[in-house]
Amino acid sequence: MLDSLALAVSVPLIGALLVTAVPGRVQGLGLLAALATLATVGLVTAEVWQQGSLRSDLGGWGAPLGISLAADGLSAALLAMAALVALAVSVYASGYFSRGETETHFWPLWLLLWAALNGLLLAADLFNLYVTLELLGLTAAALGALTGTRAAVEASLRYLLVGLLGSLAYLLGVALLYTAYGTLDMALLGAAVRPEPIAGSALVLMTAGLALKAALFPMHFWLPPAHANAPAPVSAALSALVVKAAFYLMLRLWLDVFAPLVTPWAAGLMGLLGALAVFWGSWRALRAERLKLMAAYSTVAQIGYLCLFLPVLTALPAGDAREDLLVALLLMALTHGFAKAGLFLAAGLVQRSAGHDRIDDLGGTAQHMPATTFSIGLAGIALIGLPPSGSFVGKWILMRSVIESGQWWWIPVILVGTLLAAAYVFRVLSRAFNLEPTPRRFVTQARTEVPALLLALTSAAVLGLAARPLWRLLGFEGGL
Amino acid sequence: MMTSLLYGGAGVILFALGLWAFLVYEPLLRKLIALNIMGSGVFHLLIAIAERGALAPDPVPHAMVLTGIVVAVSATALALAMGRRLEDDDDAR
Amino acid sequence: MRRAGTLVIGALVGLLALWLLWVLRDVLVPTPRLAELALQELPNTGVSNPVTGVLLAYRAYDTLLELAVLLAALLGIWSLGAASPGFQPAGTVLRGMVKLVVPLLILTGGYLLWVGGHAPGGAFQAGALLGAAGVVLRLAGDARAGLPPVPVQRRLAVAGAATFVLVGLATMAFGTGFLSYPPAWAKWLILTIETAATLAIGVTLAAAYVGGQPVPRSGEDGPL
């Protein structure tokens, strides 16, 4: 009996244990574990594709007493995105870290982070989610400090503390829910929750904790320094995957567990915070002096976009329009995951080649690396939301739904955010495309440049043109 | 009944005290102690839940507290190690 | 200004506490809970201590991930650089006490590990005692806290999670499902997992206390 859900968590975990125990061969074993993890995730996605949803009772105890793992279209799609991004990051890291100390430290923590990510996306139990959140937070903070500079350690320490605060708020919410309903299983809770003060308090505490971890405005202050000072492959994973995992959990709580409690006002507040995040994040990205800092602030803005979907989702009745909007939300999240990972990986190469990543002094540097510059451009297309990218489709459907649900006031937010994104992307590109002789060679180090390029290409061209399977994966009829 | 309210209420108050100290005080050590006090508050509440009425105590919250303690120890250890690293940097300068 | 901020935060946090107390005022009566189900299924877990039953049977997966959290903390600490030199060798009195206390801690740890099956105790309590033995040794001047050389430390630190996940995969391969112990084996599988976990927790806690990877490339012993 092959339990693909349990495998998707245990394979990266075994990989992490192996590379810890045998530090002499981290790179080979690590890459092998990455490939094996991708295979298990492929298995999960294929099974979800065929069966719609999966559930596995670990230990055979079943829902209220034991812990279950579950997957549906939403988690499978994010799982697959995470696996592809993580594989690219792994290949990149194998070329980026020179053999030695850092590499020995990177691989075990990285594979543990991947296991935590898969565990979080597949969890069906609120307390189990707390443990995965902590595993994710600890590994992410430790990885962020790997550069060893003072700024990196300081930022990671703050990240760790903020993450702990968020986890404790979440845990208090879980305790309240167990007090009131006597179960920790998300499906059972979803059926039991009634609109009453204790459930409302739990929702507020858990949302606040997760918003802190997802860096939702105004709780984003820890993100830019932490993401900008981490080693490039780590920044890519933190920005593309870790932040999104917290948002995914928030979405699950709002849409599945606490659905009867969510009022238009509460959802509107989340939308408002999202709108402020779009403005503030994009503005700071435009003013950022360093490429990686720009990418980090852009993440703040992108999380804002995802929150904009909440009020509209709450307002729309079940039906085609709502299903389209859910796909759009997923599409935005996936596109941003690929694009931001590609951008950070490319930025790491620029930084390494130039010795710095000050945007104003990038002239020529980037042009010596045509493939990398191209990656930045492609990722930029996806961040702005220009046509073939997935975020173009996502924003399009969002605007349509905003009008359908009569909440027109979100439209200026989307437009201004898009314009600001165009401004900060073109600001980098205009520096990179200075007049310099064109180099002969397109790719200089395949191991690091190709993963970045592929990620950016996926975000800019593949997702938007091939979005249709997402409807099918989520079990919906429609499509574009 | 009264006991569990007392114990659970103490947990809530510990959580709030810890939260306040975390937000107000700057030094790392105080923040870490504050976080641990918040954690203890949640554990108090869980133990109070386990001990409701005259029934046998509920082992599930007990197990959650044990798991939570190990997680809190791990996180505190990592944070302390980072803090020590920063201090070493200061000394080296 | 700062004082005003402190007051505002204090007032807000106080309001939160009052609200939560009000919310909790009448739910702390016997309401739905898992205790009855947990106690009723206990004979099927292979242990008779309900808390161990929850930790290693019903919610074993949580415990597996928790061992991973512990490992992550240690890996993070190791990545931050070398350990500090440690303390002066202890004087006669302290040394005499350490000689007495450390074996006692290890013995008590072993007892707690065994007793966890039917009474309060278990891998975490036992592991904590082993860790404490390491702390005492380091305080008494042993820079390596009584731990074996680094490669062995690494293997011991992953032993708990590795045993756990391998048992899970083995039960999956034999067709009962991930971490579903066959009833006849349950007791011994749990004991095996707990033993490995105790060692791993003890080593991890002691190594975390040492703080930093003792990588004496040249010397044979830890930095003293």
Automatic annotation (TrEMBL), chain A:
Q: Name one GO cellular component term.
A: plasma membrane
Xref: InterPro entries: CPA3_Na-H_Antiporter_D, NADH_UbQ_OxRdtase, ND/Mrp_TM
Keywords, comma-separated and alphabetical: Cell membrane, Membrane, Oxidoreductase, Transmembrane, Transmembrane helix
Give the location in the cell: Cell membrane; Membrane
Where is the NADH:quinone oxidoreductase/Mrp antiporter transmembrane domain positioned along the sequence? 123-420
Principal EC category: oxidoreductase
Which molecular function GO terms apply here? NADH dehydrogenase (ubiquinone) activity; oxidoreductase activity
Q: Name one GO biological process term.
A: ATP synthesis coupled electron transport
Lineage of the species this protein comes from: Bacteria, Pseudomonadati, Pseudomonadota, Gammaproteobacteria, Chromatiales
Q: What is its main location?
A: membrane
Membrane-related topology note: Multi-pass membrane protein
**Xref: Pfam families:** Proton_antipo_M
Q: What is its EC number?
A: 1.6.99.5
- Indicate the transmembrane segments per the record: 6-22, 29-49, 69-93, 105-123, 129-147, 159-178, 198-222, 234-255, 261-281, 293-313, 325-350, 371-388, 408-429, 450-471
UniProt lists the family membership as follows:
Belongs to the CPA3 antiporters (TC 2.A.63) subunit D family.
Instruction: List the source organism.
Output: Thiorhodococcus drewsii AZ1
Official protein name in the record: NADH dehydrogenase (Quinone)
UniProtKB/TrEMBL annotation, chain B:
Q: Which Pfam families match?
A: Oxidored_q2
User: In what way does this protein cross or attach to the membrane?
Assistant: Multi-pass membrane protein
**What keyword terms does UniProt attach to this protein?**
Cell membrane, Membrane, Transmembrane, Transmembrane helix, Ubiquinone
Question: Signal sequence: where?
Answer: none
Recorded hits in InterPro entries, A to Z, give: CPA3_antiporter_subunitC (IPR050601), NUOK/Mnh_C1-like (IPR039428)
The reply on keyword Transmembrane is yes
Q: Where does the UniProt annotation locate this protein?
A: Cell membrane
Bilayer-crossing residues are 6-25, 32-50, 62-83
Annotated family: Belongs to the CPA3 antiporters (TC 2.A.63) subunit C family.
Q: Which protein, by its recorded name, is this?
A: NADH-ubiquinone oxidoreductase chain 4L
The record lists the organism as: Thiorhodococcus drewsii AZ1
From TrEMBL, chain C:
Q: How does it sit in the membrane?
A: Multi-pass membrane protein
Source organism, top-level taxon: Bacteria
Predominant place of localization: membrane
Transmembrane segment boundaries: 64-84, 96-116, 156-179, 185-210
Q: Where is the Na+/H+ antiporter MnhB subunit-related protein domain?
A: 93-206
Compartments annotated for it: namely: Cell membrane
Is Amino-acid biosynthesis among the key words of this record? no
Which keywords label this protein?
Cell membrane, Membrane, Transmembrane, Transmembrane helix
Q: State the InterPro entries in the record.
A: CPA3_antiporter_subunitB, MnhB
GO CC terms in record: plasma membrane
Matching entries from Pfam families are given as: MnhB (PF04039)
Family stated for the protein in its record:
Belongs to the CPA3 antiporters (TC 2.A.63) subunit B family.
Identify the PANTHER family for this entry. NA(+)/H(+) ANTIPORTER SUBUNIT B, NA(+)_H(+) ANTIPORTER SUBUNIT B
Report what the protein is called. Na+/H+ antiporter MnhB subunit-related protein
